[in-house]
């Protein structure tokens, strides 16, 4: 029996809130990734880990907020907690692998392509693993072509977002990148949902049960609290918000060419600018014999 599904039980509320959560997680994660490229190795690990957890939590929360609006008319839906939380862990780990590649190797070339592919596959894996956690009297079937399109969207979005994190062009640049990433991740979700068909076991009259919102809301308390905490860290770190480098050796910054750091330092710091002028003048004056 073919099930009757509705992905927008609350209208545009769930897609809009899901999009905002994807943007929030993406913004926090990208700013952390940017910050990791502006510090030495001693701090880089912590910023990359925080960025991985922020993006992973953001896309996971986005997915299940969107799923609050998903209902099957003929059958109540439940969610397996182990599989649901496992999808969160997979998202954080796989996104983390991609972010660490870019954080240590730089947001260009092979490192960017590899990191973007791993991160995008992590987003897609989280989505379909989260769908596997659904429990109802039936089974899900997917259209292979549409699934492939959703995976491509996830990979392209992740690669573009990581590239933007490596540009280090200030706060507004990352805001725009996070909005694009949020749109792509949310689009990937609903593209994946468009490939879905539900087949029920036997015939049954429409039933009632716990709503998806009441089932999923308690599960999201932890990730939402973490995103709030990550937001506080971003808020109280002006260097990360403004994208200004700290004074560490250029070779420890894979995302920034050394020439850019020299130019930035000499144009923004008056003492260094004066010292550079003096050194240049001295180098052109004949030595005293």
Task: Provide a brief overview of the structure.
It contains eleven helices and six strands. It has helices at 13-36, 41-67, 81-105, 109-132, 144-165, 171-194, 212-216, 221-235, 238-242, 258-268, 270-283, and strands at residues 5-6, 71-72, 78-79, 134-135, 138-142, 196-200.
By DSSP (H or I, 4+ residues per run), the number of helices equals 11
What general outline do the C-alpha atoms trace?
A: elongated
Fraction in helix? 55-70%
Rg value: 23 Å
Mean pLDDT: 78
By DSSP, the count of extended strands is 6
Order of helices and strands: EHHEEHHEEHHEHHHHH
User: Based on the structure, what is the oligomeric state of the protein chains?
Assistant: single chain
The side-by-side strand order for the widest beta sheet comes to 1-2
Low-confidence stretches: 245-253, 256-278, 280-289
Proportion of β residues? 5-15%
The N- and C-terminal alpha carbons lie at a distance of 99 Å
Largest sheet: 2 strands, antiparallel
**Alpha-beta classification:** mainly alpha
């Amino acid at each position: 029996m073919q099930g009757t599904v509705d992905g927008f039980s609350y209208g545009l509320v769930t897609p809009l809130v899901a999009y905002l959560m994807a943007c929030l997680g993406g913004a926090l994660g990208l700013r952390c990734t940017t910050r990791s490229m502006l510090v030495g190795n001693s701090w880089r690990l912590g910023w990359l880990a925080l960025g991985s957890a922020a993006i992973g939590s953001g896309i996971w929360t986005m997915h299940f907020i969107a799923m609050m609006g998903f209902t099957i008319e003929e059958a109540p839906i439940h969610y397996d907690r182990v599989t649901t939380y496992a999808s969160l862990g997979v998202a954080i780990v796989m996104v983390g692998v991609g972010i660490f590649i870019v954080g240590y190797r730089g947001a260009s070339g092979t490192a960017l392509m590899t990191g973007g592919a791993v991160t995008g596959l992590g987003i897609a894996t989280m989505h379909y693993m989260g769908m596997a956690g659904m429990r109802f009297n039936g089974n899900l079937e997917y259209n292979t072509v549409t699934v492939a399109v959703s995976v491509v969207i996830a990979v392209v979005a992740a690669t573009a977002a990581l590239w933007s994190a490596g540009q280090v062009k200030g706060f507004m640049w990352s805001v725009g990148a996070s909005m694009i990433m949020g749109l792509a991740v949310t689009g990937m979700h609903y593209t994946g949902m468009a490939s879905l068909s539900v087949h029920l076991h036997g015939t049954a009259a429409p039933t009632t049960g716990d709503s998806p919102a009441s089932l999923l809301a308690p599960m999201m308390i932890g990730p939402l609290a973490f995103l709030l905490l990550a937001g506080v860290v971003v808020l109280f770190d002006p260097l990360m918000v403004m994208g200004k480098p700290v004074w560490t050796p250029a070779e420890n910054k894979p995302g920034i060419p050394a020439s850019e750091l020299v130019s930035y330092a000499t144009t923004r710091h008056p003492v260094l600018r004066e010292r550079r002028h003096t050194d240049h003048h001295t180098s052109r004056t004949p030595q005293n014999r």
